[in-house]
Structure formats: C-alpha cells, structure tokens
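User: quick one, fold this
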Amino acid sequence: MDKKNSYDDLCAYSEKFLNDWENKSTVRTQKRSRFSKQLLAKVEFAYHLKSYAHYPEVQALTKKQLQPFYLQSFCDMLGTVAIFEVSFVTDQCGKLATQDLGVELSDSVKRAAIAIGTDEMYHALVARELLSDIKTLTGMEPSHIATGAVKKKSVGTKKIKSSGVQLAPLDYFKSAVPPKLQNIAAAIVLCISENSAVDDLIVMARNANKDNPADLYIREHLADESRHSAFFQRLLKYMWSIVTEKDRIVLGRAIAGYFVKYISSNEDQRYRVHYNELRRLELSEQTCQTIAREVAQNECNTPLYDVEFNKPAMQLMKIAGVHDHLPTRRLFVRNNLLAA
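Assistant:
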C-alpha cells in the first residue's frame, strides 16, 4: 500500500478543492431561496414513497392526495439536515482540522475540512430557513419534533431518512477501538457519512425540475456533497494506508460491526417505520398494515450487500482500499456486506 501516493493525492485534491471552492460551493455561488404558498404547492419529494409506489392502492392516489405526504417527507429531510450537519458533520470537520489524528495532515487538508464544515453549516442554515417558512405557512414541522421522538438510525442514512440525530454510531466506533485509534475511528464515521448519497437521490438531483423547490434544494446540496465525498474517499484511503497492520485489523472489525449493527434491522422495526410512513397517506388501516408488513418482510430477506444504504459505503471501502485488506474483506463477506 503506497502511503506517499495516497498522501500526495489527498493533499493535491485538498488544494484543488480550496481553489475551486469560491466558484463551486453553494454558499459562495447561490442566492438562498425562500418558500411562498405557491412554491409549497409545487413540492414533490417522492423518495420516501418509492417502497410503496408499485402498490395499486398507492398508484390510485391523486397528486392532490400525495402532496401533503411529499411536503411532510421533505420537511423531515430538512429537519434531519438542520440538526445532523451541525451536531455531527461540522463538529467532526472542526475536530479533523484541530485535533491530533495520529497521522500527518497538511495545512491544505485541514483547511479543506474547515471549508467542508462551512458548506455543511450553510446547508443547515438553508434547511432551517425553509423549515421556518413551512411552519409559518402550513404549521407543519418535522415528524421527530411533532412526536417528540428521536429515532435511532445509521450515520450513513441520516441525511435522507426522516429521523432525528443520534450519535450512537460514533460512540460505537470509539468503544470498538483502543484510545489511540479513537480519533481515526471518528474520522472514519465522518468519511462514511459523507459518502452516503444513494443513487435515487443522485438521479433526482441530476434531473431537478426548476419548478420544484425540493428538487432544487437536493441538487444544490448534492453538488457540494459530491466534492465532499471525493475528499473523504482520499482521506480514508490515506488513513488506511498509514496505520499498522495490527491497527487495520482492529479498524476493519469495527467497520464491519458498524455496518451490521446500523444497516440491518429486524422485521418488527422495519414494519413500524413503514406503517408510520403509510399512515400519512389516505389509505385504510388494513392497507397500511398489509403493505407495511410485506415491505418489511422483503427488506429483511434482502442480503446486506443488496441493501440500498450499504452500497455507497461499500463503494467507499473499495475506493479507499479497505476491500483489498484480506482480513477485513473476509469479515465483509462473512457478514453478507459483500457477495462471496
């Protein structure tokens, strides 16, 4: 594993990131938009509907019937962004720039981390502004605020799931490694979280409709995230190349354990998630229960290597060279994170 090349690549990308930041970062190039009643009526955020979209009962719903579901789903996504980007991503970017990671980081790498934190803080600001507009115009709030519940979700999925922020994954990583590796472990969680955009959201961003403010927000956010993900791919590749073989084995176990713990879930957990989503639609109680149970069963019968939220993370592991580490790769295969 070439330590020098991975370090040089990280430093070179950091310099490029900083040079491009003025002209490409949303915070530097885009004027913030605000909602009006007319714009709210155009919101379509169908991502949370996709698990149920093939059911005839859902297909029979009109656009007018679906619009409240779209708006609540978008509101939930904004609520997650508003909290998570500040409490975890920005915080960890600051620590990356100021704390001793145990491996050498250049000044350009540290400045790039701060620039990324600035981007994320900006996305949280925009999310809060839009949430304020939605609440003023409709009274609607994110579900975890309205119910008082904070659900536990994987760091890798928080950005796009309607849940609150819960940093147990970070605690898990730190508890799974010795003290000398805890800062690197925290950086690995950050790398995973910044490589979590699933294909459907990327396609949604690419095909954004200028009349749909939800699509436009996703496009602006993911335009920044694509540059962030490339930085963190290089960071993980460098960290993985610089640690000892003994430390690699420990970190590999922690990574595999993280995916198993926070990507997998049991059928009853999945059922409750889908049932609560479906209750927002104009469907009968029996229909909500039947569809929720079928979707939950299908998801729990899906091997982890085919789970949507696992794929971006496994692509990160491939790019960073983690897959090339035989003990870790064996763990991934043994736990169905990779196909044999």
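User: anything notable?
Assistant: The CA atoms of residues 41 and 64 lie 9 Å apart.
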